Amino acid sequence: MPKVLVLPGDGIGVEVTDVSLDILKILDEKHNIGFEFEIELFGGSSIDAHGVPITKEVLEKAEASDAVLMGAVGGPKWENLEHSKKPESGLLALRKELDAFANLRPAVVYPALADASTLKREVVEGTDIMVVRELTGGIYFGTPRGIEKLPDGGEKGFNTLVYTTGEIERIARVAFGIARKRRNKVTSIDKANVLEVMQLWRTVVTRVRDAEYPDVELEHLYVDNAAMQLIRRPRSFDVMLAGNMFGDIISDEAAQLTGSLGMLPSASIGAGAIYEPVHGSAPDIAGQDLANPIASLLTCAMMLKYSFDMGAASNDIENAVKSVLEKGYRTADIYQEGTKRVGCREMGNLIARALRE
Length: 357
Ligand code: IPM
Ligand code: MG
Prior knowledge:
Blueprint: E1 3-9, H1 12-30, E2 36-39, H2 44-50, H3 56-64, E3 67-72, H4 87-97, E4 102-108, H5 121-124, E5 128-134, E6 146-149, E7 155-158, H6 165-180, E8 185-190, H7 196-212, E9 217-222, H8 223-232, E10 239-242, H9 244-257, E11 267-269, E12 273-275, H10 294-306, H11 311-326, E13 329-330, E14 340-341, H12 344-356
Parallel strand pairs: 1-2, 1-3, 3-12, 5-10, 8-9, 8-10, 13-14
Antiparallel strand pairs: 4-5, 4-11, 6-7, 11-12
Helix pairs in contact: 1-10, 1-12, 6-7, 8-9, 10-11, 11-12
């Protein structure tokens, strides 16, 4: 019985996760899965109830479950808290605790949505990228870190960008392994021209390729150039491999190619597995039935595929999403003239109907 801990979190995370649970229940019946869902507070909602973004009990439940399905965390209400008490640090703690070091973020341009991108159709059409982002190391977790007072009355803020051979090797293997199942190319992103740690990154990635994946094509790009090439020749990318911070930035940029952050799923895999849409809690539209539930639904599709090896159920979701898009239904974020605008709930109902057909 697959045990799934559900953490809707804050803002639109709650609405989109609601829709996802409905869809998972339909699949549960259709494919006789026997899901066990448990729902817990996370992020700002947990801060309000318990004073911390994630409680020890919830962390323990996460460790004991087969997968964690997340919505989104954060919001203006909690923005000015001390760093370690912010909703975001709950998410980082969860990733670290589950050793979910490999964050997979596919950015696929659906033919039906190619005009929703801010880039021209002829540039983005056919784009199909998998960003593989290292998620439990790098500057997000490196020490020393902090803000210190200086004798002159000023302050010094500092973080540490650090990667070990072992950390680079394991994420590189994930990227090369995925490339083999796709178009066999990895673009590794670094800043080896300036940072020693990124020099090591490049050396280790190259070594792993040469020793273990000689059949996979490897391209190295400095992060500034990668950011440029990504909007210039997006179709030329297959797997993009990056450290934690560069991967954070590049994956948002890749998202925009597809038309909306509201379309993008992600999986964070390691000892445990967390499934999280790439979008945030979007406080500006929360509670208004305006959110796009598709990122969350495609996130469920990734969960079915990666954690539970249920390819058929996973494809069901993807096909239902495609068919509803092809029929012209759009949430506000991907709306264009001539299409039919629907809310979050209605989009979920349409996808549920497509699933049952
Ligand atoms: C993401 C988000 C998070 C990150 C924040 C909310 C901590 O931007 O998942 O990309 O930086 O990893
Ligand atoms: Mg981000």
